[in-house]
Amino acid sequence: MNLSFFDQFTSPCLLGVPLILLSMLFPALLIPSPGSRWITNRLSTLQSWCIDLITKQLMTPLNKDGHKWALILTSLMILLLSINLLGLLPYTFTPTTQLSMNMALAFPLWLATLLTGLRNQPSASLGHLLPEGTPTPLIPALILIETTSLLIRPLALGVRLTANLTAGHLLIQLISTASTALLSIMPAISILTTTILLLLTILEIAVAMIQAYVFVLLLSLYLQENI
E strands along the chain, which residues? Predict the structure, then answer.
């Protein structure tokens, strides 16, 4: 019984071939391709408005050098948002519940921001490891602490996204299972549980959107420190 709750996080396979790549690429197929007109329908208008809003929110704190990352960060935001929301549909697989995938997204981008800072302004980037005015006896300990906090940033990005989405999916499955089991025994309690399930689903939609935004926002803040 306990194992069945975690079956939804197992990567689906067809004839021994993992389908996680297909589940990652499928959300991109739902985005309408631009046509010859500027505005073709309401869907493309909503898409353009969302992309413009996301780009402004991410690029406002950055200077002109950071604007080169606009395409990468906006594309990542749309990808994570699409995968997280589609993963809430029944009988679907959510790739962002896999820590390996989230780390594969977080680590290269974090490393790129770090290398950008070391290449453009090495003194300022290394200066973050030692706050100004630190007493001499505390310098080795603070350097070690700041270096550790710097190195665990990609792990924190991946674990945060994985844990929040995994917990939400487990809660939805647990409450839906309880609602189905109580339907024939205690219908009133089952209706109350179903109401809680609907409210939790709305909450999970908000969590899916917020976690995608937080993931990309933290990357933009790491970039801001290094440019």
Answer: 13-14, 17-18
Residue whose entry in the numeric block shows the structure tokens 């906006």: 74
- What's the token pair of residue 171? 């809660």
Q: Is 134 helix (H, G, I), strand (E, B) or coil?
A: coil
Q: Are 69 and 224 in contact (CB under 8 A)?
A: no
Q: Which of 189, 197, 193 is nearest to 88 (CA)?
A: 197
> pLDDT (tens digit, 9 = 90+) per residue, 179-218?
888 888 888 888 998 999 999 999 999 999 999 999 999 9
State the Rg of the chain over Cα: 22
Question: Which amino acid is it at 207?
Answer: V
pLDDT at residue 35 in the model? 63
**Is the pTM value of this prediction over 0.85?**
no
CA angle 50, 210, 43 (to 5 degrees): 25
